[in-house]
Amino acid sequence: MSFSNVKIVKNLSNFKVAFIKTGIFVGLAAYWGVILVGTFITFG
Amino acid sequence: MDVFLPIAQVFVNPIEILLLSAIVGVLSGLFGVGGGFLMTPFLIFLGVPPAYAVANEANNILATSVSGSTTHYLKNTLDYKMGLMIVIGGVVGTALGIYIFTYFKGIGKIDTVISLAYMYILAIIGTLMLVESLGEIDKKKRNLIVKKKLHVHYWIHGLPLRMRFPKSKLYESVFTPIIIGLIVGFIAAIMGIGGAFILVPAMIYIIKMPTKLVPGTSLFVTIFVSVIVTFLHSFNFGSIDLMLVVMLVTGSIIGVQVGQKLGEKIDSSGLKALLAILLLIVGIAIAYETFFTDKPEQKIIQVLTSDLNFFSLFILEFSEDMPFFYGLFSIMFAIILGIGAALIRRIFSNFKKKMLLKKS
Fold first, then answer.
1. Rounded CA gap, A8 and A2, in Å?
2. Out of B63, B247, B257, B328, which residue is the most buried by the measure of CB atoms under 10 Å away?
């Protein structure tokens, strides 16, 4: 029983790290999207 | 209480400028970056026209780099020979940068070019810094030790005309530091920054200098680059405003000393991610201003010469009548303040050491 609990906690913490990493990646991608699209619109 | 800047022809709040330059100074002292890439956008947000913000920040960087370089000179952590090679490239790069600056100023697009350059440079540094610091935090958590290769050779190491650099214990082509100096000088002239964020990694990873010689040599190069940028901006465009320079230098010199002291006491690796986020926020703010806000017609401020105080009138007449000597004066002013700050710091630390010895 305790063994499965440890496994769940481990999985949860892995999920949290993956979630934060994805969030940062999405944020950076959106950031770069805004400045690149803005540059193209301004000069277009 | 707003103060009128006689050269930039705008009103600014001196307390705001002093506070901001002190905060940026603390960040520079803490993270070992120049701070120009933060202070110039802040000046633009405070209403200083970009072309003036660039020139005056270059003069401010001169003072802080003289101060830092003097400290390293006293500690003997400076490679002059390598520094001078980078300066040769820097001179050519700066001249090229000023030529491009003059071209865009001539066609009336300089403000847009400066804003775009800042937006991209902040986005690049912010992204790299964020990824690096998150990686460091991750490694610390997992207790990972990554083995790095001792020698990685790039095409730049195969260049001819090799020379010995005894202080750094290197045998390197003279073109390596010259090319790096060229890039740094070009960026410094257009953006009014010292270029340490390019110079420092390039010295460590490309030239492969010993880490203890890097900050001093980088500051030594910055002195020459910022002297040329300040002089050319002052002589060509008359854009150095001593009133603004006094506020910037005072705030940043105090801030840098505080930042360096803080850096000795706290571990700044965790704070790196916060600085990266700050850079990205400033970058997005510039993007918002450049792309999404309607530019209001600039108000023409007319202040009669008779309304100016003695100091403002002196600056205005000095810059108009003798632009060459005004440029020299602003350079000397920054150098003297920089050396003065470094000497005061030295006296204080010697005094502190003596007191500690007496106690023990």
1. 10
2. B63
